[in-house]
Design brief:
Blueprint (H helix, E strand, L loop, with lengths): L1 E3 L1 H18 L8 E10 L8 E11 L1 H4 L4 E7 L5 E6 H7 L5 E6 L5 E4 L4 E5 L10
Parallel strand pairs: 1-6, 2-5
Antiparallel strand pairs: 2-3, 3-8, 4-5, 6-7
């Protein structure tokens, strides 16, 4: 079950308004959905390592309807009945949690995140630089 904090609801509403009103005028609210997916944080000279975490975003659902890597798991009745799609790899990382709490943060408090979300450490990795001659 997906639980949304009030801040997350506001952030999702704003993202839906952006897509439907600005990004693509042909989209309807019913075309939008909440997507949970695994993202890999790339290695950089600063982090000297990497990790995988579950990202949360608002996107048009058309490309997820027939994507075998994603499953529709729920409909958010309190938010225009938009569907929730979760990547199968993200479900594995969540280890069958009965409730997933989604919040938002960031400078504008619009970055969606899973509270106490799982992170998989990918270990250290080497960063190389090439210099053009």
């Amino acid at each position: 079950m997906i639980f949304l904090t009030e801040k997350a609801k506001e952030a999702i509403e704003e993202e839906i308004e952006f897509y439907v009103g600005i990004e693509d005028e042909t989209l309807q609210v019913s075309d939008m959905g909440l997507i949970l997916f695994v993202r890999k944080q790339s290695c950089s000279p600063i982090t000297e390592g990497g990790h995988k975490e579950i990202g949360v975003g608002v996107e048009p659902t058309q490309k997820y309807l027939s994507n075998e890597k994603f499953s529709k798991v729920e409909t958010l009745n309190e938010l225009h009945d938009i569907p929730v799609f979760i990547e199968k790899a993200a479900l594995e990382m969540l280890e069958g949690r009965p409730t997933i709490e989604i919040d938002s943060r960031g400078a504008l408090e619009k970055e969606l995140l899973i509270r106490d979300g799982p992170v998989v450490d990918l270990g250290s990795c080497r960063v190389t630089f090439s210099r053009k001659k």
